[in-house]
Amino acid sequence: MRRLIRHLVPSMFQRRLLLLALVVIVATAALGARLAQLTVAKGADWRDIAESALQQYEYIPSRRGRILDRNFRVLAEDRPSFDLSVRYPVIVGSWAFEQATIAARRTPRWRELGPDERLDLIAHHQQPFDEQVQNLWAMLCEIGGVDRTDLDDRLRTVTRRVQSMVSAVRMGRLRLWEDDLEEPDVKSQISQPIGEQEAIYPVLSDLDDKARLLAGRLLAAGRSSTVPDVWAQVSVLPSGRRDYPRETMTLELDRNFLPSVIRRAVPQQVEVEGVGIHLIGALRRSWREQEQSPFRVGGRVDLKGYLPGDMAGEWGLERSFEAHLRGTRGRTVEHLDTQRQTRTPPKPGDDVVSSIDIRLQARLQALMDPSFGLMRVQSWHTLQATAMRGSPLRGAAVVLDAAQGQVLAAVTVPSFTRSQWRHDPEAIRRDGIRHTFWNRAVFMPYQPGSTVKPLVLAAAVTDDVLAYDEMIECRGYLLKEDPLHYRCWIYKDWNDTHDNLRGAEAIKHSCNIFFYTLGRRLAARRLVHWYERYGLGRRHGCGFVEESRGRLPDLAKSNDPRAAGFSIGDATFMGIGQGPMEWTPLQAANAYSCLARGGYMLWPTFTIAPSLNRDDTRPKNEDLGLDRIGVSMAMTGMDMAANDHDGTAHRLTTLNNEPIFNLAGVKVWAKSGTATLATRWVDVNLNNHFDTGELRWVDSNRNGKRDDGEEVPHNSHAWCIAMARSLAVPSSPRLRTGPNIVVAVVVEYGGSGGLVAGPVANQILHALRAEGFL
User: Fold this and answer.
1) 313 contact partners, CB below 8 Å, separation of at least 6
2) Nearest by Cα to 652 from 746, 507, 758, 750
3) For residue range 698-726, what is the model confidence (pLDDT) as tens digits?
4) Residue 619 maps to a domain
5) Beta strand spans in 628-740 (E)
6) Domain of 697?
7) 648, 508 in Cβ contact below 8 A?
8) For residues 90 and 448, what is the distance between their CA atoms, to the nearest angstrom?
9) CA 20 to 30 Å from 42, out of 56, 395, 587, 689?
10) pLDDT digits (tens, 9 = 90+) for 255-279
11) Do 358 and 391 belong to one domain?
12) Is residue 382 assigned to a domain?
């Protein structure tokens, strides 16, 4: 190579000149590449950074979209407001000590004092700062028009919330560094304060103009003071108050059609609080959103992004439709070099129109409140319920428009109010026994019991495992060689049988033997396949992030222990809605609405705007291809169950055979269900027998002992699913002459579905008439 170069360039001077030129070219190329990177690839970012030094920005808040009910009544809307907030060190009293310590350290004799003398000096200096804090609280009481007790409660709530976070963070640090506790700096790192201990917290909310002006003058004086002033630790900030104008509603409830024990001729005035709170939701300070959609991305600003202090949906529609409801900030830019201003106006969020009728929702919450009587243990429930007579019951109800697949109402019992949530949200979240925070209608899955029998019948006829006129004998038990297992309820309770039954009659009498047989004939895979098509074990994309899938064994996963252990016994029990399966009240109502449409699956929704239901994860509407005669047999069976004298959903046998459904001019189809569950009981007299007074209980918080509130009257969930159509109103073409309303009710540990959940379903039908739906 060297010889070649010398041959081509014989002069030493020329070779050195060539080398120098090569170095210059390489250096120039490197500089050019870097220049191209800065001006082309990242030019816009650097230009923004350079220009930002000559610009001043002011961001304009946006308005969050409203949430409306199906009749465009406002359920949630923004209203401009201001909160007065105080720094946490002032709230807990550490600010006065910190300022006193600073003042004490400035005294000439500080270094000469011992520890006790220093504390005495700090206490001497702390007195005027403590007086400032006490004067602050007195002034806040005057500004906000609250008494000192109320203010102290608010301060304690803030303190408890922050201390709970501090404890959680320190426990996490302790677990992380538990192997290094002997290191000198580890203990100090564990006890390091967290950001919430320096943050500001609202103490007075929704200040009026007069209070805001007075607080503003005091703030200005405190910040301009040459000595430490506690008012410098106070801020008045826009809170973006979210109003829920129909959170409290007053209704009149008719008591003429209740069971005779609680029937009254005079209507009852009820004030309902917390109307729709599980559905509508609430807001919280954003945190997850700041990570997913930050305000600053690289060198650019996303005006739709989140800043600390921004509000975001916490649950319900507020959370599920956050992207639609949240608006985009505006911005005013002042160019310091040209004195020119440019303004980008804010863009308000989109409104969300829900399918809920808020008056119907309020009416259902009122009639399912324990004070009305239906959701308490009553004498007609069973004769064995005397030990817990009057105890409140828990449960849920869903009302579905079968033609459109729209949810008209969804109620959870027990509930809570926004006032309770603002006062102590952690108490509601930590309620491990009553689970007050859970939206039972869409989140809580339960075993369905006999309510699946119409679905199983339609599937069995479609799959040709049951002939149209085939009869199956009920001799009280399924297997001759094992008469103690797989028994019919009539055999267990009355030592009787149903004899030979056809499909519709089996639903009317809710014969277990008939559906044990169909469960075995369909077998595991076909049975699970049909339940999946009916909507079990899958999310419906109804519009709630909190929606539960329910539970089914996944037979496709060989390593799934539920699938591996799935047996013919499980399939037998799943034929009557027991075993490894659970569904939510929403899934139950939707499966029945599929039968009402003749087998067409229209997935449910909580909104009426088609654009809000365009979700890639939402299943596609489809015709399940159910045999028309099979569907007709199922509907006929539910007709007889609700309307024949010996139907299981027809009468309250413990109240002189009063009819369960008593709404005139309405055709009703119904199926009740009693889902037996495992519960514990306390054998007080140690005789190994469940006696009166020995209460059953469910270990709701899983602590291994029976706590207050864990008693249950029965070891069964009570179900009733009713379908209805007004005889005076033509049915939808999609439904032909079938029902256009589906009501699903579950009462946790209520016992008999017909006796307990049936009267609740009946009153919901009366509520639907009162609001013009029937």
Assistant:
1) 281, 282, 283, 284, 319, 320, 321, 322, 325
2) 758
3) 777 767 777 777 777 777 899 999 999 98
4) no
5) 651-652, 658-659, 666-676, 680-681, 696-697, 711-712, 716-726
6) 681-710
7) yes
8) 54
9) 56
10) 999 999 999 999 999 999 999 999 9
11) no
12) yes
